[in-house]
Amino acid sequence: MPGTVLPRLRYVPQVTKRKTDSETSLPPQFAGWFAARGWSPRAHQLALLAQARRGNSALLIAPTGAGKTLAGFLPSLVDLAGMRRNLSGLHTLYISPLKALAVDVARNLETPVREMNLPVRIETRTGDTSASKRQRQRRMPPDILLTTPEQLTLLIGSADGAHLFATLRHVVLDELHAIATSKRGDLLALALAHLRTIAPSMTVIGLSATVRDPDELRRYLVAQDSGESKKKPMAWLVEAPGGAKAQLSMLDTRERLPWSGHSALHAMEEIFAAIRQARLTLVFVNTRAQAEAVFQQLWSINDDNLPIALHHGSLDAGQRRKVEAAMVAGKLKAVVCTSTLDLGIDWGDVDLVINVGAPKGASRIAQRIGRANHRLDEPSLALLVPANRFEVLECRAAIDAAAEGAQDTPVLRAGALDVLCQHIMGLACAAPFHADQVYREVTSAEPYADLSREEFDAALQFVANGGYALGGYDRFAKIKQRNDGLWRVANPRVAQSWRMNVGTIVESDELKVRLVRARKIAMSMIAEQGGPVRSRSGSLYYPSRLAGGAPDMSKAYTGVVGRGGRVLGKIEEYFLETLAPGDTFLFGGEILALQGIVEGEALVVRAPGDAPKVPSYAGGKFPLSTYLAERVRKMLSSPKGWDSLPEQVGDWLKLQKRFSALPPSSGMLVETFPRGERHYLVAYPFEGRLAHQTLGMLLTRRMERLGLKPQGFVANDYALGIWSLADTGARAKNGLLSMAELFAQDMLGDDLEEWLQESALMKRTFRNCAIIAGLIERRYPGKEKSSRQVTISTDLVYDVLRRHEPDHILLRAARADAMTGLLDLERLAAMLSRIAGRIVHKHLERISPLAVPVMLEIGREPVAGAVLDQVLAEAAETLVEEAIGSRVF
Amino acid sequence: MAHGFSSAVRRAASDEARCQTFAVNGTRVVADPSGALILPDCATLVVADLHFEKGSAFAARGQLVPPYDTAATLARLMHVIASHAPRIVIALGDSFHDERAGERFSAADRGRLGALMSGREWVWIRGNHDPEIPDGLGDTCAELCHGGLTFRHEPQRGSAPGEVAGHLHPAARVISASGSVRARCFVADGSRCILPAFGAYTGGLNFRSPAFAGLFVAAGITAYVIGSDRVYAIPESRCGF
Questions:
Q1: Within an 8 Å CB–CB cutoff, is residue B94 touching chain A?
Q2: Long-range contacts of A439-444 (CB under 8 A, 24+ apart)
Q3: Residues A347 and A234 in one domain
């Protein structure tokens, strides 16, 4: 249930009366090793050992630094130490969400193995492992194999998976909280279900940070009952005591708090001062754009040349490895980073975490703070830096939540159908299967426990022949059912294609950013030559063109585009597509000017100046969690608690109370006011940007039907602002319009269906499903050149499928994703139901204090998802203006 | 994120307003929002790159995309033919996705195509995808001169006044104050016109990419971009890469 936070359940480690010494005592070898290091085994490490000895699966919840990894491997090491060396069988499988983490853990595990002289062979297997090593691993498996969910899926889908895993005793799942709630978690759950079939006596240990509802993860670890039984089996729970409470504070800035924006530029001096005092600081931000902006600002005041580095997912991998190595080596003072540094790798001696911008979620911030100070007994030090006034409220809510230990990790969803399709194909690649048996196995996985036979059969049919009502593809079937009732792969090519497309992470189309040399040539030459030109060296280039009002600076930097410069990293294609040649933007800590896009690469040159024209690009924006939103609403509605807020913020809220009203804690405030020629409507649902954006799309459709002539809208995490030609507020006031009807829940009916038809976000969602399910193949680097011939745009497939087969399994999968993904429909639905009958409408003469932040975002945020005809009509206008030719309009 | 739109542009436009009329080498042509080009003075309708049976061609290679593309393309063709009632239809090549498309062309779709063809002259120009077309659909030719224009599949580099071609699947990236969109388009410079691909599964290639180099004179290139229900004339300078 979104929106609810269960009280944190306190479990005593389930080592009960019947415990015997043989269950919890360490073999002498191990006891000696602990003693030699001056350690004693922790209670949760022994408790986990006892569960494993009894053959039980268990979930360990422990904070960072509690010896979680060692706890997870202790049962395996103890077991292996007492065994005669088994050459032919894999004993323990460890799964991590990051390959770097798998490699890191393998290295750490070598220490006790070496020091105790245990006969244990440990190996990793990732995308980087050589083909020969992989082959050897199948023939001569190590005792312990550390790998990722995707590699496990590949092993299961290989012909010798059954043989390889037959001897498996333990599976350890690291960072389970980070995997379980995603499609990767679905894929992993299906793989686990299959491992249980191959090795029925194996046990599973899940390692997790503190979560909202441990029972969900406990069910994830064990087989669920099929059939009528309503029992939901759970793994045992072992909970380590929490470490010292983090010292969490909010920066009490001396500067004026900005009304909007996300880069906290006002606080850079203060952030810099904190960095200077600490040993090693991680400066977390929410988006790559923020990382770029903060990094640039810090360096602009870094007169001491402190070694401050930048780390985010768009940067070239080699560059990121360098930064990580420098961190571990203690050569850095601070790293500005996005969530790419979120997960458990030990990056060195971090003693301060600074979170710039909104925390977005209570658990999210708690896990980030955990990155500081890996010693359990010392408190982690963290500083929250709100970038604007609303973020102050959010930071306050997060600090209070942390003090209570409240958690708001995402809820487990029903398993995704596209992932199921991929899994079924993998099973067929491994060996012929019987549908009934696979259905039983699949429904033993927790995310698929409620999967109906009808849905399963639809997935099976999809894998076989596409599952279309209009038949005809039987002769192209990928898997076929033979007379013995078993399903088999139709040909080896099918299996090869599956192997190339395993996994649930679909990268958005990205282009390489290549730094090229700018050679100045006169603008007049370009004007004369117009189209693409061949340079003396023979490479094609485009003279930069000025698209509608591009800045003059492009003159100085327009040049022949040479090839072969350095690759700086990758950027999403959709961001680049919004740029015109000559536009400047921040990337990798530098201001770059786009020269053109040639053969799938964005060619850029360094640009002078310090103010990029295009301020940001959206990458990895999380919406505000339901839980924090609720706390923020409560805080707003009760002035008594405002004392704990900075004075500027308290004053702002008092003004809001005087001139308008405070948003109620469970209802919703709607304000209307005129400004300029337009009439504005600002609503404060506090449900996150994604849900607000969807609401904006649906609401403007409805307003248009009502003749209110809406002109556009802007959404942030807290509010939605719509402007229109008609005075919506006055109509509501005069009883000509009801706010309740405007926000009535039925907007999720026909309007939604109509919008989904053309929504770019829905098409992106569908594309992901189509790739994961194996409908179309992924694009790989190097394959792209011929891609126009070998790929079909999924947007076109979506259009055709919607029209001809609206109930197809892939459309069902895409709709399920839309509920929680980019459209956040589930949250929107919950909100509309929450506010029904509780709308507070204020018709004002002018803008209210609370409305200022969202109003400031108009014209500031890059515009996305613009309607096709709007853009075309505007661009066509210029043609009229320029009066080119004598065309008939 | 800000979103802009105007209700004015959503108003259903009259047929004439939905189209764009311009001249190619002196011959009056009309760009229809379906992607077809009409020559009103000789009752001729031109379509490019139908790519019938593209879906099943993918299926044969293991990507089981929905098999409805041929029917969808035919339905669109039927609609535009019904509204313009041309005497002559010219298909500018790549009408069939591959030489074996005939084996996968269903009897129902063949019947629909036959009904469209009957009572009018139908010219199949050969393309690189379809050096041969399925039996029983008539003859093909490499190019055709008609109404002062030359119709061929692949545009020829250099000066070719009056050339009407397909092959390149032009699309435009249009940037305005409200954002950036990508859509299929006709490209013309007064001397030559390249049509968008008509088929349901045919993607687009940005007309400012190198594949189009050397085809149009630098000044006066206009993209006739297809919106949801009408065609917009947009100067090249407003189109991005």
A1: no
A2: A440/A226, A441/A193, A441/A194, A441/A196, A441/A197, A442/A190, A442/A193, A443/A224, A443/A226, A444/A193, A444/A196, A444/A223, A444/A224, A444/A225, A444/A226
A3: no
Residue A690 in tokens = 């994604």
Find out whether A59 and A208 touch, Cβ atoms under 8 Å: yes
Q: Do A222 and A316 have their domain in common?
A: no
Residue from B14, B64, B216 whose CB has the most chain A CBs within 10 Å, to mutate:
B64
B74-98 pLDDT, tens digit per residue, is 999 999 999 999 999 999 999 999 9
| Same structural domain, A424 and A396 | no
Q: Are residues A597 and A631 in the same domain?
A: no
Task: Check whether residue A306 and residue A166 sit in a common domain.
Answer: no
A chain contacts of residue B1, beta-carbon cutoff 8 Å: 618, 689, 693, 714-715, 861-865
| Cα A245 to Cα A379: distance, rounded to the nearest angstrom | 6
Q: Please check whether residue A25 is in contact with residue A142, taking contact to mean a CB–CB distance below 8 angstroms.
A: no
Say yes or no: B187 contacts chain A, CB-CB below 8 A: no
Are A80 and A216 in the same domain?
Answer: yes
Strand A92-95, strand A144-147: pairing = parallel
Tally of domains in chain A: 5
Evaluate whether residue A564 is within a structural domain. Answer: yes
Range of the domain at A120: 21-239
- Whether A543 maps to a domain, the answer reads yes
pLDDT digits 0-9 by tens, A150-198: 999 999 999 989 999 999 999 999 999 989 989 999 999 999 999 999 9
Domains of chain B listed by start with CATH number: 18-240 (3.60.21)
A86 and A212: one domain?
Answer: yes
On the 0-12 / 13-18 / 19+ scale of CB atoms within 10 A, B12 is exposed
Q: Does the pLDDT value for residue A579 go beyond 70?
A: no
Residue pair B182/B215 in contact (Cβ under 8 Å)? The answer is: no
| CATH of residue A359 | 3.40.50.300
A236: tokens are: 């045992």
Domain assignment of residue A616, yes or no: no
CA-to-CA distance for B185 and B35, rounded, in angstroms? Answer: 8
Q: Is B234 in contact with A876 (Cβ distance < 8 A)?
A: yes
- Verify that A27 and A120 share a domain, yes or no: yes
Q: Say if residues A467 and A478 touch (Cβ distance below 8 Å).
A: no
Helix (H) or strand (E) holding A107: helix A99-115
pLDDT for A617 equals 44
Residue A244 C-alpha, separation from nearest chain B C-alpha, in angstroms: 40
Q: Which residues of A touch B98 (CB under 8 A)?
A: none
pLDDT-derived band at A293 (thresholds 50, 70, 90) equals confident
pLDDT bucket at A619, cuts 50 / 70 / 90? very low
Q: How far, in Å, CA of A666 to CA of A36, rounded?
A: 58
Examine residue A204 and state whether it is found in any structural domain, yes or no.
yes
pLDDT band at A788; cut points 50, 70, 90: very low
Question: Under a CB-based contact definition with an 8 Å cutoff, are residues A382 and A352 in contact?
Answer: yes
Which of chain B's residues have a Cβ under 8 Å away from the Cβ of A462? 64
Asked if the C-beta of A707 comes within 8 angstroms of chain B's C-beta atoms, the answer is no
Query: Distance between CA atoms of A440 and A457, rounded to whole angstroms?
Result: 12
